[in-house]
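Item description
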Amino acid sequence: MDMPIERHLNVLDTEKVNPATIEIDRISHLEIAQVINAEDENVAQAIKQVLPHIARAIEAIAARLRRGGRLIYAGAGTSGRLGALDASECPPTFNIPQEMVLACIAGGPQALGQAHEDLEDSTEAGQSDMEKLGVSEADAVVGITASGRTPYVRGATAYAKERGALTIGLACNANTPLEQEVEIIIAPLVGPEVISGSTRLKAGTAQKMVLNMLSTGTMILLGKTFGNLMVDVQATNYKLQQRALSIVRQATGLEEDAARTLLETSGGEVKTAILLARTTIQPEQARERLAAHDYVLRAALEAAQ
């Protein structure tokens, strides 16, 4: 059965009228940009207030992924599209399997390019999408909804919770139903939007920033970086090949030709190349050492000292 939809959305901060923009249609184009920019400045401060919750979520997600679990985003409309964006960028950035970070959006893939707001009202659709993925206690599910009330998202997190998965809520309002239904709530309070109720604006920006932190922080804990270098990058095109070469040079101090040769010897594997440059072992030994240390480059290097 679908959850009831509260009718009085105007009680939500994200749905209220912003007094700073009441006459936005009467000001100049520069003033429009300035007022939007001024409102956006509040987003980072709102996120700053919930950093302990974000940190807790990062640690908990990483623990699930270390055990072979998945990070799954569930959202509708803008929230769902932002989840899909973050999920799609993780494999090439961190060289992870496509199935490690996934996203579900109300209405399915067609909703990524065309609005299907009516489909966000189905609790059963959210539950069904989680069931299709076979969500279990191994997984972490992040429900993304600016209002904190979206039935699709609440259905997804409710199903995940029943299956023992870690459940995290990402909303932009306080004291929402979602907050009572998940293990960890992240709720940056960005206030009324520039255009009343248009949560693709400040709420969407806040959600994107939090998702950046969740996925990036998790991957750092999983050893997908070396310092701030993207050492698990997949060099699938020219730009990424150049980035891989630059990373090897920065991590080893080698000149371009030597770094390129080392990268070729390592089969394009950045971590292997760096380990070879800093030790006297061979590529296969480097791969074995990385595997023995859960592919965390810093741990493999420290073990070699």
User: Anything to note?
Assistant: The first helix runs from residue 29 to 48. The longest strand covers residues 71-75. The CA atoms of residues 13 and 191 lie 5 Å apart.
